[in-house]
Amino acid sequence: MNGKKGSFEINIPPEATKSKLPGTSKEGSIGAFSSCKAWIWSVWEFAKEDSNRVKFALKVGLAVLLVSLLILFRAPYDIFGTNIIWSILTVAIMFEYTVGATFNRGFNRALGSLLAGVLAIAVAQLAIQSGRVAEPIIIGISIFLIGSITSFMKLWPSLVPYEYGFRVILFTYCLIIVSGYRMGNPITTAMDRLYSIAIGGFVAVLVNVFVFPIWAGEQLHKELVNSFNSVADSLEECVKKYLEDEGLDHPEFSKTVMDEFPDEPNYRRCKSTLNSSAKLESLANSAKWEPPHGKFGHFFYPWSEYVKVGAVLRYCAYEVMALHGVLHSEIQAPHNLRFTFYSEIQEAATHAAELVRSLGKDISNMKRSPKTSLLKKVHSATERLQRAIDMHSYLLTSNFDPPDNSSKPLTKLPVTFSTTQYDLSNPLTEFDSNSTENNLSQINENMPSGTPPQQTESYHEMMRKQSRRLHSWPSREVDAFEEEGGLSMDLLPRMKALESTAALSLANFTSLLIEFVARLDHLVEAVDELSKMAKFNHEGV
């Protein structure tokens, strides 16, 4: 208080008077600049990924500008009046990414506008002849019928490609007949709007064809070739990682479900191949509307065969994705068991990927080359893998009996594996209650005579724990064994069954690889059929 009754004095520090306004601080400015920079960089990367996107955007702007000149200049505006706005709408609606899609959309636009104009003129004349009282009734009934019929017909399966044409009929008819009814001259209104639509369509086609054209046929051709390379690369990547993986660093289950494998770039490319069915069909439908161009220089080019080849390729890609599923599964075969069949698996996968990549190269170069030698290599490598699996099938079970060598000698795998620490005759040492005792007895023999009993017991305990870790699958801590009462006789059969299940994942992987090779025959036939119908040149011509 300052001494006056009813008054108070409050002392405010000088620093508190300096308030910081939100959004005006230096940190806020830096954050806004960083976000803006990141957005610009993402736009740059998006445009850099496919330069045709920028070309398409510029072409649309050019087409709209050319049509807008008809309004900006006085002479054409005096001729068409406000109906010239229909040309701008036509360009905005009709202009598509590829030339073929633009032709397709233009055909639907032209045919729909023509039919709608003819129907509007005919119904308007009938309504005028019926008198002023019946005229709005006839127009209203006709709008209801046209709307119902076109909406139903565009749902018909065989007419789905012309869905846009039915939509054009509906809104063009309604706009022409309603505006003509109010203006009193439906024929003049219909003709002016048809002229405007024709001008807009002509400008859209002209710009799309002659200014940096983007052909749907070339896009389809490149997309199919890239799919071949993606499948081949993904197969090699998967097999290489499966054979070299020692099981030390597996992704978490959540990452496996979400397909988050940043160290496998080819995996995502192969996955996109599985989802390319709709894209290939769309490009093929658009390519059918395009005139001969570039290396596709003859009419009635078999674009539908590209879709068939893509379907067979996806049939092979499913097997590659299944191989990836085994690679990232929770149950894995021991690394030394996988390494036993290293050369057979690697050879089959390499030759298969080489064949797939060769087929894609032939389509890219539009050449026909014999694939007999490559097929023989793939089949020979696969047969060697099958023989190796059959000969050493006992390795894929935990309870196996060694083969009888007295009647027939055991064929060994290639010499490259002789340096490994993996004994083929006994790869999965059967664990029983006597094995631990044998190990302990050997330790007692090797122990110095003066070793205290407690130290000897610690060695015994250590060996017992190592045996538990070695023969447990899935791996568990030693405490878990203690809680369950140690290695009881009931636990041993279950452990052996789990070991057998882990080994069988290798059989699953090899069977999927063999199935992939079997499907390559269908792929070769599909590519050969495409090369015949597309009239590819023979290699060397």
UniProtKB/TrEMBL annotation:
GO terms for biological process: malate transport; monoatomic ion transmembrane transport. Keywords: Ion channel, Ion transport, Membrane, Transmembrane, Transmembrane helix, Transport. Its main location: membrane. The chain crosses the membrane at residues 56-77, 83-103, 110-128, 164-182, 194-216. Pfam families: ALMT. The keyword Transmembrane helix applies. It is found in: Membrane. It is a multi-pass membrane protein. One of its GO terms (cellular component) is membrane. InterPro entries: ALMT (IPR020966). Belongs to the aromatic acid exporter (TC 2.A.85) family. This is Aluminum-activated malate transporter 9-like.
